[in-house]
Amino acid sequence: MGRGKIQIKRIENQTTRQVTFSKRRAGLLKKTHELSVLCDAQVGLIVFSGTGKMCQYCTHPFRMEQLIERYEKVTGTRVPEHDGREEVYAEMTTLRRETHRLQLSMQRYTGEDLSSLRSYEDLDQLEKELERSLNKVRDRKNELLQQQLDNLRRKERMLEDENSSMYRWIQEHRAAIEYQQAAMEAKPVENHQVVDQFQLYGEQPCSVLQLATFPPDIQPYHLQLAQPSFQD
């Protein structure tokens, strides 16, 4: 049995459609190449996929531009080139219109030009918008002021801590200096007490100590060795 006839219609399943496109594109390029080689024909083929991807084939050694130029000469037509000037002009017009609208809005908010506001409702709406903007500005201003106050308080606490540390350091060093001064003042008194314990020559203090002498009624004692007796 032969293969069933395939109904030619759009394949709804995207995956199946992409697989079918890849297979048939390869077959189409193969047949185009065979036609060009076997029949010595100049063939140009351009294919765009559903996703916008382009693939092309051109008979060697020609280029696709040469084949398109030959097509234009034969048919007497010209492939329209894309002219972006109209799009640029349209975009410039849109930007110019938007710029003008923004300028009018700025002039309204600054009070320079209120001629475009023709009714009381428009002026009242503008006043409400300005009040809302002013409230936002005040809120932001208060927020910045609060941040500055917090920073100043933080710096104040740091300075107080440094001042307290410096004060304690000064008190400790002052106590140490007073203790050293008291110790230095007490040393001469101790030296006088030690010197007064010794008898000195004369009534005035002297650095030479007086040597003690024996009283006149005490005779010097001489040690005499006893001789042994051999008569016994």
pLDDT < 50 stretches: 198-214, 220-225
Sheet/helix structural class = mainly alpha
Q: Can you write the helix and strand succession as a string?
A: HEEHHH
Total DSSP E strands: 2
> Level of helix content?
55-70%
Mean pLDDT: 79
Shape: elongated
How are strands sequenced across the largest beta sheet? 1-2
Distance between the amino and carboxyl termini: 171 Å
CATH second-level architecture of the domain at 14-75: 3-Layer(aba) Sandwich
CATH fold name of the domain at 14-75, please? SRF-like
CATH H-level superfamily title of the domain at 14-75: Transcription factor, MADS-box
Give the C-alpha Rg.
60 Å
Strand content: under 5%
**Tally of helical runs:** 4
| Biggest sheet descriptor | 2 strands, antiparallel
Instruction: Give the CATH class of the domain at 14-75.
Output: Alpha Beta
Q: How would you summarize this macromolecular structure in one to three sentences?
A:
It is found in: Nucleus. With 232 residues, this protein is mainly alpha-helical.
Describe the fold and architecture.
The structure is a single chain. By secondary structure, the chain is mainly alpha-helical. Among the domains are: 14-75, 3-Layer(aba) Sandwich (SRF-like); 89-117; 127-184. 61% of the residues lie in helices and 4% in strands. It is built from 4 helices and 2 strands, in the order αββααα. The protein is elongated and about 135 Å long. Mean pLDDT is 79; it is low at 198-214 and 220-225. Residues 1-61 form the MADS-box domain.
